[in-house]
Amino acid sequence: MVLPRHKLRGLSFVNVALVAIVLAIAITAYFLFFRKDAPAASATRPTVAVARGEVTASVSSSGTLASSQTASPQFETSGTVTQIMVKVGQVVAKGAAIAKVDPSAAERDLRIADQNQIAAANSVTAAEETLSDAKDAAEEAEEASASPTPTTGQQQTQSQGQTQNPEVAVSNAEASLARAKADKEQADQNVEAAQAAVDATTLKAPIAGTITAINGTVGSVAGSSSSGSGSGSGSTSGQGSASTSTTTTSTSGSGFVDISDLKKLQVVAAFPEADAIKIKAGQSATVTLNAEPGTTLTATLASVSPTPTTTNGVVSYSGTFSLAKVPANARMGQTANVTVQTAKATNALYVPSTAIATSGTTYTVTMADGGGTREVKIGVKGDSYTQITSGLNEGDLIELLQGSISSAGQNGQNRTGQFPGGGQFPGAGAGGGTGGFGGGGTNRGR
Protein backbone atom coordinates (compact mmCIF):
# COMPACT_ATOMS: atom_id res chain seq x y z
CA MET A 1 0.00 0.00 0.00
CA VAL A 2 1.43 3.35 -1.03
CA LEU A 3 0.65 6.39 1.15
CA PRO A 4 -0.19 9.69 -0.42
CA ARG A 5 2.68 12.17 -0.75
CA HIS A 6 1.27 14.66 1.79
CA LYS A 7 1.02 11.92 4.41
CA LEU A 8 4.62 10.86 3.77
CA ARG A 9 5.72 14.46 4.24
CA GLY A 10 3.96 14.66 7.65
CA LEU A 11 5.50 11.37 8.81
CA SER A 12 9.05 12.53 7.94
CA PHE A 13 8.57 15.69 9.99
CA VAL A 14 7.52 13.66 13.04
CA ASN A 15 10.53 11.38 12.66
CA VAL A 16 12.91 14.31 12.45
CA ALA A 17 11.39 15.86 15.61
CA LEU A 18 11.72 12.58 17.49
CA VAL A 19 15.35 12.21 16.46
CA ALA A 20 16.10 15.78 17.56
CA ILE A 21 14.54 15.15 20.99
CA VAL A 22 16.52 11.94 21.46
CA LEU A 23 19.77 13.71 20.55
CA ALA A 24 19.06 16.55 22.97
CA ILE A 25 18.44 14.07 25.78
CA ALA A 26 21.62 12.16 24.93
CA ILE A 27 23.77 15.31 24.92
CA THR A 28 22.32 16.51 28.22
CA ALA A 29 22.91 13.12 29.82
CA TYR A 30 26.50 13.17 28.58
CA PHE A 31 27.25 16.54 30.15
CA LEU A 32 25.43 15.65 33.39
CA PHE A 33 26.64 12.11 34.01
CA PHE A 34 29.62 11.28 31.85
CA ARG A 35 31.72 14.43 31.56
CA LYS A 36 34.03 14.90 34.54
CA ASP A 37 35.00 18.28 35.94
CA ALA A 38 38.58 19.33 35.59
CA PRO A 39 40.64 18.31 38.63
CA ALA A 40 40.56 20.86 41.41
CA ALA A 41 44.31 20.76 41.50
CA SER A 42 44.39 22.25 38.02
CA ALA A 43 42.65 25.42 39.28
CA THR A 44 45.20 28.14 39.80
CA ARG A 45 45.24 29.70 43.26
CA PRO A 46 46.02 33.36 43.80
CA THR A 47 49.58 34.04 44.90
CA VAL A 48 51.09 36.64 47.16
CA ALA A 49 54.60 37.89 47.85
CA VAL A 50 56.02 37.75 51.37
CA ALA A 51 56.19 41.35 52.59
CA ARG A 52 57.77 43.23 55.46
CA GLY A 53 56.02 45.57 57.84
CA GLU A 54 54.20 45.70 61.17
CA VAL A 55 51.96 42.96 62.55
CA THR A 56 49.70 43.49 65.54
CA ALA A 57 47.38 41.16 67.42
CA SER A 58 44.35 42.36 69.34
CA VAL A 59 41.22 41.30 71.18
CA SER A 60 37.95 43.17 71.20
CA SER A 61 34.91 43.54 73.40
CA SER A 62 32.11 45.95 74.13
CA GLY A 63 31.23 47.68 77.37
CA THR A 64 29.85 50.90 78.74
CA LEU A 65 31.06 54.30 79.82
CA ALA A 66 31.17 54.61 83.59
CA SER A 67 32.36 57.16 86.09
CA SER A 68 35.84 56.55 87.45
CA GLN A 69 34.71 57.74 90.88
CA THR A 70 31.31 57.18 92.48
CA ALA A 71 29.97 57.34 96.02
CA SER A 72 26.73 56.61 97.85
CA PRO A 73 27.08 58.23 101.29
CA GLN A 74 24.67 57.16 104.01
CA PHE A 75 23.77 58.58 107.41
CA GLU A 76 25.25 56.53 110.22
CA THR A 77 23.58 58.62 112.91
CA SER A 78 19.95 57.53 112.91
CA GLY A 79 17.29 60.18 112.84
CA THR A 80 14.43 61.74 110.95
CA VAL A 81 15.44 63.62 107.82
CA THR A 82 14.66 67.30 108.34
CA GLN A 83 16.27 68.86 105.26
CA ILE A 84 17.65 67.95 101.81
CA MET A 85 19.91 70.62 100.34
CA VAL A 86 20.63 69.19 96.85
CA LYS A 87 18.79 68.21 93.69
CA VAL A 88 19.42 65.56 91.05
CA GLY A 89 21.86 66.90 88.48
CA GLN A 90 23.43 69.37 90.88
CA VAL A 91 27.23 69.53 90.96
CA VAL A 92 28.63 69.49 94.51
CA ALA A 93 32.09 69.98 95.94
CA LYS A 94 33.76 67.56 98.30
CA GLY A 95 32.50 68.21 101.82
CA ALA A 96 29.35 70.04 100.71
CA ALA A 97 26.25 69.58 102.89
CA ILE A 98 23.72 67.23 101.32
CA ALA A 99 21.03 66.57 103.94
CA LYS A 100 20.33 66.73 107.68
CA VAL A 101 18.62 64.57 110.29
CA ASP A 102 17.17 65.70 113.64
CA PRO A 103 20.21 66.31 115.91
CA SER A 104 18.32 66.32 119.25
CA ALA A 105 19.41 62.86 120.43
CA ALA A 106 23.00 63.36 119.35
CA GLU A 107 23.19 66.76 121.05
CA ARG A 108 21.79 65.28 124.27
CA ASP A 109 24.48 62.59 124.23
CA LEU A 110 27.09 65.29 123.74
CA ARG A 111 25.89 67.23 126.78
CA ILE A 112 26.06 64.09 128.92
CA ALA A 113 29.55 63.31 127.64
CA ASP A 114 30.66 66.87 128.44
CA GLN A 115 29.39 66.54 132.01
CA ASN A 116 31.13 63.21 132.47
CA GLN A 117 34.32 64.70 131.14
CA ILE A 118 34.17 67.53 133.71
CA ALA A 119 33.51 65.07 136.51
CA ALA A 120 36.39 62.89 135.42
CA ALA A 121 38.71 65.88 135.35
CA ASN A 122 37.66 66.81 138.91
CA SER A 123 38.33 63.25 140.05
CA VAL A 124 41.84 63.43 138.63
CA THR A 125 42.47 66.69 140.51
CA ALA A 126 41.21 65.23 143.80
CA ALA A 127 43.28 62.07 143.36
CA GLU A 128 46.38 64.14 142.71
CA GLU A 129 45.81 66.11 145.96
CA THR A 130 45.30 62.90 147.93
CA LEU A 131 48.53 61.49 146.59
CA SER A 132 50.40 64.66 147.46
CA ASP A 133 49.13 64.53 151.07
CA ALA A 134 50.09 60.86 151.38
CA LYS A 135 53.61 61.56 150.23
CA ASP A 136 53.96 64.44 152.69
CA ALA A 137 52.81 62.22 155.52
CA ALA A 138 55.22 59.51 154.49
CA GLU A 139 58.14 61.98 154.56
CA GLU A 140 57.18 63.19 158.03
CA ALA A 141 56.98 59.63 159.30
CA GLU A 142 60.40 58.87 157.91
CA GLU A 143 61.92 61.93 159.61
CA ALA A 144 60.26 61.03 162.91
CA SER A 145 61.64 57.49 162.85
CA ALA A 146 65.14 58.86 162.29
CA SER A 147 64.94 61.18 165.39
CA PRO A 148 66.17 59.53 168.72
CA THR A 149 63.79 61.48 170.96
CA PRO A 150 60.40 61.89 169.34
CA THR A 151 58.49 65.00 170.10
CA THR A 152 54.88 65.06 171.15
CA GLY A 153 53.82 65.64 167.52
CA GLN A 154 55.97 62.79 166.33
CA GLN A 155 54.47 60.51 168.93
CA GLN A 156 51.04 61.41 167.59
CA THR A 157 52.19 60.70 164.01
CA GLN A 158 53.57 57.33 165.01
CA SER A 159 50.32 56.59 166.80
CA GLN A 160 48.45 57.38 163.61
CA GLY A 161 50.90 55.28 161.61
CA GLN A 162 49.83 52.29 163.59
CA THR A 163 46.48 52.76 161.92
CA GLN A 164 47.79 53.08 158.29
CA ASN A 165 51.30 52.60 157.08
CA PRO A 166 52.50 55.73 155.19
CA GLU A 167 53.86 53.61 152.32
CA VAL A 168 50.52 51.83 151.93
CA ALA A 169 48.73 55.16 151.89
CA VAL A 170 50.95 56.41 149.08
CA SER A 171 50.41 53.21 147.08
CA ASN A 172 46.63 53.46 147.43
CA ALA A 173 46.67 57.10 146.40
CA GLU A 174 48.71 56.29 143.30
CA ALA A 175 46.21 53.57 142.31
CA SER A 176 43.29 55.96 142.77
CA LEU A 177 45.01 58.54 140.57
CA ALA A 178 45.61 55.95 137.82
CA ARG A 179 41.92 54.98 137.85
CA ALA A 180 40.88 58.62 137.72
CA LYS A 181 43.15 59.27 134.74
CA ALA A 182 41.77 56.21 132.92
CA ASP A 183 38.22 57.46 133.52
CA LYS A 184 39.25 60.88 132.22
CA GLU A 185 40.72 59.36 129.05
CA GLN A 186 37.52 57.40 128.41
CA ALA A 187 35.45 60.52 129.03
CA ASP A 188 37.55 62.43 126.49
CA GLN A 189 36.94 59.69 123.91
CA ASN A 190 33.21 59.77 124.61
CA VAL A 191 33.13 63.53 124.02
CA GLU A 192 34.93 63.10 120.70
CA ALA A 193 32.49 60.36 119.66
CA ALA A 194 29.48 62.41 120.71
CA GLN A 195 30.75 65.43 118.80
CA ALA A 196 31.28 63.25 115.72
CA ALA A 197 27.70 62.00 116.04
CA VAL A 198 26.43 65.58 116.12
CA ASP A 199 28.54 66.45 113.08
CA ALA A 200 27.22 63.35 111.30
CA THR A 201 23.66 64.61 111.52
CA THR A 202 24.68 66.65 108.48
CA LEU A 203 25.47 64.33 105.57
CA LYS A 204 28.37 65.65 103.46
CA ALA A 205 29.64 64.73 100.01
CA PRO A 206 32.70 62.45 100.25
CA ILE A 207 33.76 63.32 96.69
CA ALA A 208 33.19 66.11 94.20
CA GLY A 209 30.69 65.19 91.50
CA THR A 210 27.13 65.29 90.25
CA ILE A 211 24.10 64.10 92.23
CA THR A 212 22.68 61.29 90.11
CA ALA A 213 20.00 60.04 92.52
CA ILE A 214 18.35 60.95 95.83
CA ASN A 215 17.12 57.84 97.63
CA GLY A 216 15.52 59.47 100.69
CA THR A 217 12.84 62.03 101.49
CA VAL A 218 12.21 64.63 104.18
CA GLY A 219 10.41 62.98 107.10
CA SER A 220 11.84 59.52 106.50
CA VAL A 221 14.08 57.80 109.02
CA ALA A 222 17.67 57.61 107.81
CA GLY A 223 20.77 56.05 109.24
CA SER A 224 22.50 52.71 109.43
CA SER A 225 21.17 50.26 111.99
CA SER A 226 24.70 48.95 112.38
CA SER A 227 26.14 52.22 113.63
CA GLY A 228 27.86 51.57 116.94
CA SER A 229 27.51 53.36 120.22
CA GLY A 230 30.15 53.71 122.89
CA SER A 231 29.67 54.30 126.58
CA GLY A 232 32.08 55.26 129.30
CA SER A 233 31.84 55.63 133.05
CA GLY A 234 32.52 58.98 134.67
CA SER A 235 33.84 59.30 138.17
CA THR A 236 30.68 60.98 139.40
CA SER A 237 27.57 60.04 137.45
CA GLY A 238 28.79 56.64 136.35
CA GLN A 239 27.44 56.18 132.81
CA GLY A 240 27.52 58.39 129.76
CA SER A 241 26.76 57.25 126.20
CA ALA A 242 27.79 58.72 122.88
CA SER A 243 27.03 57.39 119.41
CA THR A 244 30.09 56.91 117.22
CA SER A 245 29.51 57.59 113.54
CA THR A 246 31.30 58.57 110.40
CA THR A 247 30.10 59.26 106.88
CA THR A 248 31.12 56.40 104.64
CA THR A 249 30.99 55.60 100.94
CA SER A 250 28.89 52.54 100.18
CA THR A 251 27.89 50.57 97.13
CA SER A 252 26.16 52.66 94.51
CA GLY A 253 22.41 52.77 95.09
CA SER A 254 22.53 51.84 98.81
CA GLY A 255 23.19 55.33 100.17
CA PHE A 256 20.98 58.31 100.81
CA VAL A 257 22.24 59.86 97.55
CA ASP A 258 24.37 58.71 94.62
CA ILE A 259 27.25 60.87 93.40
CA SER A 260 29.30 60.37 90.23
CA ASP A 261 32.22 62.29 88.82
CA LEU A 262 31.04 62.84 85.25
CA LYS A 263 34.25 64.62 84.25
CA LYS A 264 36.28 61.44 84.58
CA LEU A 265 34.68 58.66 82.56
CA GLN A 266 36.17 55.25 81.85
CA VAL A 267 35.21 52.16 79.88
CA VAL A 268 34.36 48.90 81.63
CA ALA A 269 34.21 45.86 79.33
CA ALA A 270 34.05 42.10 79.92
CA PHE A 271 36.41 39.72 78.11
CA PRO A 272 35.92 35.96 77.76
CA GLU A 273 38.52 33.91 79.60
CA ALA A 274 40.34 32.97 76.37
CA ASP A 275 40.95 36.67 75.65
CA ALA A 276 41.37 37.75 79.27
CA ILE A 277 44.65 35.84 79.60
CA LYS A 278 46.08 37.99 76.78
CA ILE A 279 45.40 41.36 78.36
CA LYS A 280 47.20 43.10 81.21
CA ALA A 281 47.36 46.54 82.76
CA GLY A 282 49.26 49.12 80.74
CA GLN A 283 48.32 47.85 77.27
CA SER A 284 47.12 50.45 74.78
CA ALA A 285 43.64 50.30 73.33
CA THR A 286 41.25 52.14 71.03
CA VAL A 287 37.64 52.92 71.82
CA THR A 288 34.69 53.82 69.61
CA LEU A 289 31.28 54.90 70.86
CA ASN A 290 28.10 53.74 69.19
CA ALA A 291 26.80 57.27 69.58
CA GLU A 292 29.83 58.60 67.65
CA PRO A 293 30.92 55.84 65.26
CA GLY A 294 33.35 58.07 63.39
CA THR A 295 35.36 59.03 66.46
CA THR A 296 38.22 56.87 67.73
CA LEU A 297 39.42 57.44 71.30
CA THR A 298 42.78 56.46 72.76
CA ALA A 299 42.70 54.47 75.99
CA THR A 300 44.93 52.50 78.35
CA LEU A 301 44.01 49.32 80.16
CA ALA A 302 44.08 50.39 83.80
CA SER A 303 43.23 47.10 85.48
CA VAL A 304 41.82 43.61 84.98
CA SER A 305 39.53 42.17 87.62
CA PRO A 306 41.18 39.21 89.39
CA THR A 307 37.80 37.60 89.99
CA PRO A 308 35.57 36.28 87.21
CA THR A 309 31.91 36.84 86.47
CA THR A 310 29.87 33.87 85.28
CA THR A 311 26.74 34.51 83.21
CA ASN A 312 24.80 31.58 81.75
CA GLY A 313 27.88 29.40 82.16
CA VAL A 314 30.18 31.85 80.36
CA VAL A 315 33.18 33.03 82.38
CA SER A 316 34.46 36.56 81.77
CA TYR A 317 36.79 39.07 83.40
CA SER A 318 36.16 42.78 83.60
CA GLY A 319 38.70 45.24 82.20
CA THR A 320 38.74 48.94 83.10
CA PHE A 321 40.12 51.42 80.56
CA SER A 322 41.07 55.03 81.22
CA LEU A 323 40.44 57.45 78.35
CA ALA A 324 43.07 59.97 77.32
CA LYS A 325 40.33 62.44 76.42
CA VAL A 326 36.61 62.28 77.05
CA PRO A 327 34.26 63.80 74.42
CA ALA A 328 32.25 66.73 75.71
CA ASN A 329 28.93 65.05 74.92
CA ALA A 330 29.84 61.62 76.35
CA ARG A 331 27.38 60.21 78.87
CA MET A 332 27.48 57.42 81.43
CA GLY A 333 26.00 54.18 80.17
CA GLN A 334 26.81 54.73 76.49
CA THR A 335 27.95 51.63 74.63
CA ALA A 336 31.68 51.56 73.89
CA ASN A 337 33.60 49.15 71.66
CA VAL A 338 37.18 48.58 72.78
CA THR A 339 40.11 46.91 71.02
CA VAL A 340 43.22 46.00 73.00
CA GLN A 341 46.56 45.53 71.28
CA THR A 342 48.01 42.35 72.80
CA ALA A 343 51.14 41.84 70.66
CA LYS A 344 53.17 43.75 68.09
CA ALA A 345 56.03 42.95 65.72
CA THR A 346 57.76 45.69 63.74
CA ASN A 347 59.88 45.30 60.60
CA ALA A 348 58.64 41.73 60.39
CA LEU A 349 58.07 39.36 57.49
CA TYR A 350 54.39 38.56 57.21
CA VAL A 351 51.87 36.76 55.03
CA PRO A 352 48.08 36.49 55.06
CA SER A 353 46.93 34.00 57.68
CA THR A 354 44.92 32.22 54.95
CA ALA A 355 48.20 31.17 53.30
CA ILE A 356 49.29 29.06 56.28
CA ALA A 357 48.21 25.44 56.82
CA THR A 358 48.28 24.22 60.43
CA SER A 359 48.77 20.67 61.65
CA GLY A 360 49.22 20.58 65.40
CA THR A 361 52.25 22.76 66.05
CA THR A 362 53.51 22.52 62.48
CA TYR A 363 52.89 25.36 60.02
CA THR A 364 53.40 25.10 56.27
CA VAL A 365 52.90 27.25 53.19
CA THR A 366 52.60 26.26 49.52
CA MET A 367 55.17 27.84 47.23
CA ALA A 368 53.96 29.26 43.93
CA ASP A 369 54.73 27.73 40.51
CA GLY A 370 54.82 24.16 41.78
CA GLY A 371 57.47 24.76 44.41
CA GLY A 372 55.81 22.40 46.86
CA THR A 373 55.20 23.02 50.56
CA ARG A 374 57.62 24.55 53.05
CA GLU A 375 57.57 24.48 56.82
CA VAL A 376 57.72 27.88 58.51
CA LYS A 377 57.98 29.30 62.01
CA ILE A 378 55.49 31.95 63.05
CA GLY A 379 55.48 34.81 65.56
CA VAL A 380 52.68 37.28 66.17
CA LYS A 381 49.33 36.07 64.85
CA GLY A 382 47.33 39.14 63.88
CA ASP A 383 43.71 39.39 62.90
CA SER A 384 44.47 39.05 59.19
CA TYR A 385 48.20 38.49 58.90
CA THR A 386 50.81 36.31 60.61
CA GLN A 387 54.47 37.05 61.25
CA ILE A 388 56.96 34.65 59.71
CA THR A 389 60.13 34.22 61.79
CA SER A 390 61.86 31.60 59.60
CA GLY A 391 61.32 29.55 56.46
CA LEU A 392 60.60 32.37 53.99
CA ASN A 393 62.35 35.37 52.55
CA GLU A 394 60.94 38.73 51.58
CA GLY A 395 59.54 38.56 48.06
CA ASP A 396 58.96 34.78 48.01
CA LEU A 397 55.73 33.88 46.22
CA ILE A 398 53.28 31.62 48.03
CA GLU A 399 49.78 30.44 47.30
CA LEU A 400 46.67 31.36 49.25
CA LEU A 401 44.64 28.48 50.58
CA GLN A 402 41.58 30.73 50.27
CA GLY A 403 40.82 33.76 48.16
CA SER A 404 40.11 35.97 51.15
CA ILE A 405 41.59 37.07 54.44
CA SER A 406 39.75 35.82 57.51
CA SER A 407 40.37 37.28 60.93
CA ALA A 408 39.12 36.28 64.35
CA GLY A 409 36.80 38.92 65.61
CA GLN A 410 35.11 39.51 68.88
CA ASN A 411 34.22 36.38 70.85
CA GLY A 412 35.45 34.08 68.09
CA GLN A 413 33.32 35.56 65.32
CA ASN A 414 35.11 35.81 61.96
CA ARG A 415 35.47 38.89 59.88
CA THR A 416 36.33 38.33 56.22
CA GLY A 417 37.92 41.15 54.30
CA GLN A 418 38.11 40.55 50.55
CA PHE A 419 41.13 41.62 48.57
CA PRO A 420 40.64 44.27 45.90
CA GLY A 421 39.40 42.81 42.69
CA GLY A 422 37.00 40.18 43.94
CA GLY A 423 39.28 38.24 46.22
CA GLN A 424 42.44 38.56 44.09
CA PHE A 425 45.52 40.46 45.10
CA PRO A 426 46.34 43.73 43.35
CA GLY A 427 48.17 43.03 40.15
CA ALA A 428 46.96 39.46 39.85
CA GLY A 429 45.72 38.74 36.37
CA ALA A 430 43.48 35.97 35.22
CA GLY A 431 44.93 32.65 36.08
CA GLY A 432 46.51 33.81 39.33
CA GLY A 433 49.29 36.26 38.49
CA THR A 434 51.50 37.58 41.28
CA GLY A 435 51.21 40.78 43.17
CA GLY A 436 51.75 42.36 46.58
CA PHE A 437 48.89 42.66 49.02
CA GLY A 438 47.65 45.87 50.50
CA GLY A 439 48.33 47.04 54.01
CA GLY A 440 44.81 46.55 55.28
CA GLY A 441 43.68 45.78 58.77
CA THR A 442 46.46 45.64 61.31
CA ASN A 443 49.43 45.42 58.94
CA ARG A 444 51.41 48.18 57.35
CA GLY A 445 53.73 47.13 54.54
CA ARG A 446 56.72 49.06 53.40
Automatic annotation (TrEMBL):
Compositionally biased intervals (Low complexity): 144-164, 238-253
Source superkingdom: Bacteria
SUPFAM superfamilies associated with the record: HlyD-like secretion proteins
InterPro entries: MdtA-like_b-barrel, UPF0194_transport
Keywords tagged on the record: Coiled coil, Membrane, Transmembrane, Transmembrane helix
Record localization: Cell envelope
Phylogenetic lineage: Bacteria, Bacillati, Actinomycetota, Actinomycetes, Propionibacteriales
Keyword ATP-binding on entry: no
Predominant place of localization: other
Record's protein name: Macrolide-specific efflux system membrane fusion protein
Record's GO cellular component terms: cell envelope
Compositionally biased residues, Gly residues: 419-446
Keyword match Transmembrane: yes
UniProt organism field: Kribbella antiqua
